[in-house]
Design brief:
By secondary structure, the chain is an all-alpha fold. Helix content is 77%, strand content 0%. It is built from eight helices and no strands. Helix 6 packs antiparallel against helix 7.
Length: 168
């Protein structure tokens, strides 16, 4: 069993290296099934691990920001991305990415959308959020292609250096 998970991890890393993308999206989500030879148990485990990792990362940064500015953290993290259980979330994401037009929606946005459906948010609001997510990721990718990834890395490095200088 562990052998399959190790192989799955290696394959995901190798496939991920070929692409300059910022987020996982529906293409990656669907590719998991192919990578595990359509084994439903392994597919679920890989997808559940990714979803749990995203939610854990979100919680980590919530607490990190909350320690500095609690009101700001509460306003940023107002959505409830953990309304559904992991099993329900994986099932909902599978259904969401069945729609070809949703394939380009980043997985973090799709998690929020799946929970919006679970909370029975009005469909019009969900559709607006989906359109905004598509616009946002398309604009970000366009900017990245025009300016190049180097500019993003330079900005991140500069921010990090500025932060280190302020601390010292």
């Amino acid at each position: 069993m562990y052998k399959y998970l190790i192989i799955l991890g290696a394959v995901v890393v190798l496939f991920g290296q070929n692409q300059n993308r910022l987020f996982w999206d529906g293409r990656d989500w669907k590719r998991i099934e192919q990578l595990v030879d359509y084994n439903p148990e392994l597919s679920y485990r890989a997808k559940a691990a990714y979803v749990n990792g995203v939610l854990d990362g979100r919680l980590f940064y919530y607490f990190k920001i909350w320690a500095e500015q609690s009101e700001f953290a509460d306003s940023i993290f107002a959505e409830t991305p953990d309304y559904l259980s992991t099993k329900e979330l994986v099932k909902s994401l599978n259904g969401f990415y069945e729609e070809p037009l949703n394939v380009y929606v980043p997985l973090p946005s799709a998690i929020i959308i799946a929970n919006m459906y679970g909370e029975q948010v009005p469909v019009m609001l969900i559709d607006d959020y989906i359109q905004q997510s598509k616009f946002w990721i398309n604009q970000l990718m366009l900017d990245m292609e025009e300016d190049g990834y180097d500019k993003l890395l330079e900005e991140k490095a500069k921010k990090h250096q500025d932060k280190l200088l302020k601390e010292n």
